[in-house]
């Protein structure tokens, strides 16, 4: 019975991906990648009930794709929506959307080369967003994209005291995009971080390894003063690892799908 239910679930998933792809005018692989990106980020502990990932529409550069307001670990193809760069859903009857979708629209406006974005509150990164003494810095060759000192967005500088630290408007998203500048990552004080990539797999890689770097840096600080990557080393290692994102993606995808299959089997038992 469990095997039959699993097969039926897989068939329904393929059908849902095809239907979503047709609805949004993209190839099925695009839909699958965006769904899997959500599952990977959850499976890797980068997001929990909160956080979100998006990708620029592959044929309509003034649009982006993102889930409705839903925990990333639960996202399916039918939950994906299309937005313009003002972060307004193209479907006027679309279900509730993320409060912070403006992060994505405004960065896509400011950075035409960016094709995917991940916003997360991964637990070891947040302390580096609030420390006034120690900055997040690249500590190993897997994390060169972080650089020597990534920017930290201070929302109070732009919008005063008393915000809830969330990016709730286009103006706030534009301010965050200015803080990001040409970097690959921006920390957000008391909030988390946002990473960008030339593709969905690269953005997911960077989100995962931002958390890895933060954890490694914290451990190194406890041992003594770390020797960080130089700017030249960070740039060179980032270029090398950007060409290797398919390898971890394949592993993480397999793990995420196995976790989903196990959950489905347990539910059907």
Question: In a nutshell, what does this entry contain?
Answer:
With 269 residues, the chain is an alpha+beta fold.
Structure characterization notes:
The chain has helices at 2-24, 28-43, 102-110, 126-130, 155-159, 170-180, 200-223, 231-242, 246-268, and strands spanning 52-56, 63-67, 80-84, 116-120, 152-153, 185-188, 192-197. With 269 residues, the chain is an alpha+beta fold. A seven-stranded mixed beta sheet has the order 3-2-1-4-7-6-5, with helices on both faces. The longest helix has 24 residues, at 200-223. 42% of the residues are buried.
Question: How would you summarize the topology of this molecule?
Answer:
Blueprint: H1 2-24, H2 28-43, E1 52-56, E2 63-67, E3 80-84, H3 102-110, E4 116-120, H4 126-130, E5 152-153, H5 155-159, H6 170-180, E6 185-188, E7 192-197, H7 200-223, H8 231-242, H9 246-268
Parallel strand pairs: 5-6
Antiparallel strand pairs: 1-2, 1-4, 2-3, 4-7, 6-7
Helix pairs in contact: 1-2, 1-9, 2-7, 2-9, 3-6
